[in-house]
Amino acid sequence: MKPIFTALLLGWACQVLAQTASTGTAYTEISAIPYYQETDQDTANHKLNLVLPKNVTKPPLLIWIGGGAWSYVNRNMEMDVVRKMASKGFAVASVSHRLSAATWKDPALNTGIKHPEHIKDIARAIKYLHANAATYGYSDRNIFVGGYSSGGHLAALIVMDGQYLASEGLSKSMIRGVIPMAGTYDIGHYHQVLTSGNGLAFADNHIGSVFGLTPKEFELGSPTSYIDSLSTPMLLVSETNTFKYTRLFEDKLREANYKQLEVLHVHRLNHGELWKNLSYAPESIYRDLMADFIRRNTEAATAPN
Predict the structure, then answer these.
(1) Which CATH number fits domain 4-296: 3.90.1260.10, 3.10.150.10, 3.30.930.10, 3.40.50.1820?
(2) Residue 57 has pLDDT above 90, yes or no
(3) What is the pTM of this model?
């Protein structure tokens, strides 16, 4: 890996800073920051966008992972919700990761990577953001991870299967809270539901391209396999399309008597509608819920950083 500060200087030198004011806190954007620069990797997707609130001392950082079935995730598509969260006084990073094939959606999406390569990229992005907290001005003690749809799955997995952060010299205890939204958390169950609704060929094509098709591969990619290792406060949110996946995850967490769990099932919005609410609504109770969770789980600003 290139030296952290070399990557940082390259990122700063090649980006255009845009200063944007909103109805809340003004913020500054830095786009396409490279967080991992190995030449044999897909460096186009090893990038993140960072939005920093102005005039806020060491704000908490929310690392946001967009949705797209692990296959067509686009960090730039998430910038509406990212900016709106930054306007509440948080630093927010929208993170890209390498993608899986998705011929079930588009025949042109016929190449890509499989688990665990996506989650390795998330760990690399967290390492970069943690290492460069002082340079960008946010708190390295108050880092949160959230995501929508496939990003919700990855957000949960990064704090439950600790090996990926450990491989980057980090501990999952460094994450102050996690916000998985509208995701799936047991890949075997996901395969069963898709088979029932869309047929075996569709389920095998979609899930096989991302995780493989053996029971062991399902297990390794499932946050439900790591229930006993969870120690991070979690805000878990579903909508009508992902209720069954989230409820199964919730039930397993409650069976394990996990106490640091907050759950909201949004029964009035479907998958796309909740994402649009988070992204475009001038006022969103769901963004407010996220902001409240971050504030309640943030260390006091007077704590050493």
Answers:
(1) 3.40.50.1820
(2) yes
(3) 0.90
